[in-house]
Design a protein that fits this description.
3 copies of one chain form a homotrimer. Chain A folds into 2 domains: 6-129 and 287-301, Aspartate/ornithine carbamoyltransferase (Rossmann fold, 3-Layer(aba) Sandwich); 130-284, Rossmann fold. Chain A has 11 helices and 9 strands. In chain A, β5 (150-155), α6 and β6 form a beta-alpha-beta unit. In chain A, 50% of the residues are buried. By secondary structure, the first copy, chain A, is an alpha/beta fold. In chain A, the strands form 2 sheets. The first copy, chain A, has a 5-stranded parallel sheet, covered by helices on one side. Chain A is 40% helix and 15% strand. The A-B interface holds A 29, 32, 49, 51-52, 55-56, 58-59, 62-63, 65, 67-68, 75, 263-266, 271, 282, 285-286, 288-289 and B 39, 41, 67, 69, 71, 75-77, 80-82, 84-85, 88-90, 92-95.
């Protein structure tokens, strides 16, 4: 089994396999007794920088007794080997799984084609970031108790933020989901996602202003509002657009709603708001650990 | 317990807790039987380059059966997350301690404020480097048999060398210590340290010439004399200043004195002198291992 | 025992000690039961980039239960410590072996002089790369069943490719070896190697054209043909020179010959040929793991 695309997971698999296992990982970890990956070896191959994804997987692996090493070709002066040859060599060295971040869409699929061991897509350009989406979905279920009948606002550069793309694919698998995409018009969701949601009969709308949406949703999923593209898009757009949660927006939100953010965050979610229990981004980060422990133990035991 | 500032340690704690434990670590290690940190995980977060500090802690941790991973934001193209958020996320990932090197004074204290796990200050700009000071003090005690009634020369850029700053704080806690600060006048010790030593009734003097001091001390603590600031300072100062130990200076020293250096060294301590048993800098490096093993095992067991 | 120079190994040691042990490692590994290096620590010190060598040793070490850490001075803004001092400090930290890649010939020998622990030469400038040569020899023996009575073509920049240099030294120790060096005239083998082969009565010739040699050899050992030096050399030379294996060249080769390549490869060995069983470069990479497992276990147990 490879983990390549958020679309590969069924709602049933999430609810009956992955999430219960993540809950188990949480318990096992709290018991301090978890060496099920002893002797197993994860290799990360990153063509783009990553911090949280690396550390989260690294922690998941080492907390279960496994080891981690890696290579970051983007740090090298020149990249003298094709992706395929790298994967072939890593297969020779007998790692138990390869965690791949690639700078272009489709990198994970190319790697899976020549790999002798499971490939985990840790982001491929503007494409997918399926394990982030899995932990996001797990967080929503933990925070709100359900993954159906939800209004979810997805906010930011929706053309290029792969986490949003992957999460929308996951949420679309659950009943009565209403997605509210909030972005500058020049950074709207991709046609491909729009078509898929339409074909799947998922309710969704698109808007430029978060403040109009925030009061009516169960989840606000923020992404970085200070990237170059976002800054540029806002400069040319109307003044009443907003892509951040400040004290006023938080005040307007439902008392049991949650604000998620894949981190790192910028001005779109100021740390002065952290004491509000609806700001769930660090609980979300902690959940990442348990979901990745679950995924790694599934891969290592050959289940799927 | 965090390790943030050399001033936090009492003379009693050093003599009754840390140093005996470091001795035990030395014995345990020589017996080749030491897995007391098995399953424990150290994370290093370095905003400035470090070699010896990282490798010394890494060795201490792995020799005791623990594991180490880290992040070096200074290597990244851009640093997209605040120190506080980084520490919050690392706390989510459940490391057992965070070893922090920061480029500005006060970084370790800021981190400790938001951290759920112990923070170890591995240097914060020109501020402190407390674990280096602890190993320096341990080395002096091992080499000379005592930590009181000593003449110690501290040499170099005393404004910016945090190891010297931290060591002076530690030595000031012991009786009958006489500190001799040797530096260009433009790179003298900081007013803060001068005030504290005065308040604590510690005898000290300041001079520009090591050769006048070397014959009369028990310890010469050298630091780098080839930094830009030092080179610049010497260019504008009198010709009879010296900040290095050469064969003549060594000849002038007491037969049972020692020369320490935190390394890396430059022309201020030429390797041609290494065969003289008074050159203790590599024994000092080895001691670093045992002191850090002691510190890590104290942190991991929650003692202090 | 240090591993410094391909010339240090006898044919007997290879055949009676190293190769059988590598075979054992292959079996042990396939049994999934191999913690003989538990608690042992390898340190890599790289003054030049390396990917395959690092990952291969890292895998060998961790598959046998040991741990690995390292330092890459070439990544640092400035290198502030001499090679000798670095090795002295690493000796203090009690690693079990130091894997050294240095940018100048003789680095490994300098390190061995001051090291308290075994040094493994992982390449010293244009000098040697002995462990690559050992795995190359092991691969030839596995692929062809023998290490004597062989025609071997060594192809590429023979002045600077240290793997070729080291392999020629190893092969020269076996009877009835005929070496065919194929390179642009400006990048021919070094006088030193030529003299040694002559003194050892090893048959060899030198040519500029691989296509004339390929049909008549048991082994074609390719190296990178797209380096700056190679590209430059070919630009000024005759058109009928070739340093690559394409479909036509492969067609001309003996049915039981093999093509080796230390990787990474460029246009000199296109991946479209990989399905031909004579292309052995990934089996060669896998063998690297077993040979390095054997070397590490020999060093750790103090045998040689």
């Amino acid at each position: 089994m490879h983990i390549l695309d958020a679309r590969q997971f069924s709602a049933e698999w999430l609810q009956d396999t992955l999430f219960p296992l993540a809950d188990t990982m949480r318990s096992i970890h709290q018991l301090g007794d978890s060496r099920v990956l002893s002797g197993k070896r994860l290799f990360y191959l990153f063509y783009q920088a990553s911090t949280r994804t690396r550390l989260s997987f690294e922690s998941a692996m080492t907390l279960l007794g496994g080891t981690v090493s890696g290579l970051e070709p983007y740090r090298e002066e020149r990249d003298d080997e094709s992706l395929e040859d790298r994967i072939r060599v890593l297969s020779c060295y007998d790692y138990d799984a390869i965690l791949l971040r690639y700078h272009e869409e489709g990198g994970a699929a190319r790697a899976a084609k020549v790999s002798g061991v499971p490939v985990i897509n840790a982001g491929d350009g503007p494409g997918q970031h399926p394990t982030q989406a899995l932990l996001d979905a797990y967080t929503i279920r933990r925070e709100l108790g359900r993954l159906e009948d939800l209004d979810v606002a997805l906010v930011g550069d929706l053309t290029h933020e792969r986490t949003v793309n992957s999460l929308a694919h996951i949420l679309a698998k659950f009943p009565n989901i209403r997605l509210h995409f909030v972005s500058p018009t020049t950074l709207a969701i991709r046609a491909e996602l729009r078509d898929e949601l339409t074909a799947a009969n998922v309710e969704f709308d698109e808007t430029v202003d978060l403040s109009a949406v925030a009061p009516n949703v169960d989840v606000v999923y923020l992404t970085r509002a200070h990237t170059e593209r976002m800054v540029m898009a806002q400069r040319y757009n109307a003044a009443d657009e907003t892509y951040r949660i400040d004290a006023a927006a938080l005040e307007s939100m439902r008392p049991n709603a949650v604000v998620l953010h894949p981190l790192p965050r910028g001005p779109e979610l100021d740390s002065s708001l952290d004491s509000d229990p609806r700001i769930a981004c660090f609980r979300q980060a902690a959940n990442g650990l348990f979901v990745r422990m679950a995924l790694l133990s599934l891969l290592a035991t050959g289940q799927s």
